[in-house]
Amino acid sequence: MIKYYDLKKVTESHEPQISQAISRVVGSGWYILGNEVKDFEQQFAQYCGCAHCIGTGNGLDALTIIMLAYKEMGIMQDGDEIIVPANTYIASILSILQAGLKPVLCEPRWESCNIDPDRIGELVTPRTKAIMAVHLYGRCADITSIERIAKKHSLKIIEDSAQAHGATINGRRTGNLGDASGFSFYPGKNLGALGDGGAITTNDKELADTARAIANYGSQKKYVNIYKGLNSRLDEIQAAVLAVKLQRLDEDNERRRNIATRYNTGISNPLVTLPEYNNREEHVFHIYPIFSEQRDLLQQHLHESGIETLIHYPIPPHKQQALAEFNNLEYPITERIHNQELSLPCHPAMSDDEVARVIHAVNSFKA
Q1: Whole-structure pTM over 0.85, yes or no?
Q2: Burial (CB count within 10 angstroms: exposed 0-12, middle 13-18, buried 19+), residue 9
């Protein structure tokens, strides 16, 4: 069976460096908020091209803390609105709700699966405070158009970069495209830890200082709490692992692009729609999505052919029981994406033979 993502093989490709890094941390006797976290934060900020990086416990917390910080800074208040793509993973929307704000769902473009800037303007109200630009599947959102809208309406741009580590647009990397960005380092991400982890990046020092305090019980000085904060900190072991993997992130992303290019040129089944993208650098293919009206039959065919696939995501957020207040809404483009999407294996540890087998299996599918 060709695994969708072979985490064991990916991790082994970074040995012995990962084991050495973990041993170094264990031997140091310091496991929370030490030099490993500080060094990784500096390296990741430099990689993204921004001034500040704050490690967090996970990507959901990273996004939530950004908005909590804006509230503490007086830029947002309870009930303010954040425009967010309707077809994102539910975590993007949960972060808005957990910050006491209101998500306003916006349809994506079918071609890119990212938020449609042409629809954002009609959703802006006096309570709108930000646009959440989700770089879904690893493809940069149309940040040029989003910047124009944000400037016109004096809105913040919050990037959800959980799936887009290292993607660039106009020479700028994700994490440095908006006012602040939230990253996830979940193990399966392009830059993945060996457990949960996340980070905030920004060029805004006040936001960075406020977010760092909120993530540490609302404290900038031990036992002195100025905000009603959280406990959401990147630990020393995960920071050390991430620092190892960061050194090869661009190389690994290029391997993903090469696999995606082979899929795009090799898959020719008329029952399958391939992802459209114009600029290689704008996409790091955290997910390689294909679309088919016979998605479930195709997935079964691939399983029988020895290929593991995933669906990102089978139920759109507005139809989830957890978001019952949105259940009566209809977003036809979002629903089409969720009904047709199927993710093929696409990761740096895949062999050329495995890629060829996937292409053959997809092309051999008949409804």
Answers
A1: yes
A2: middle
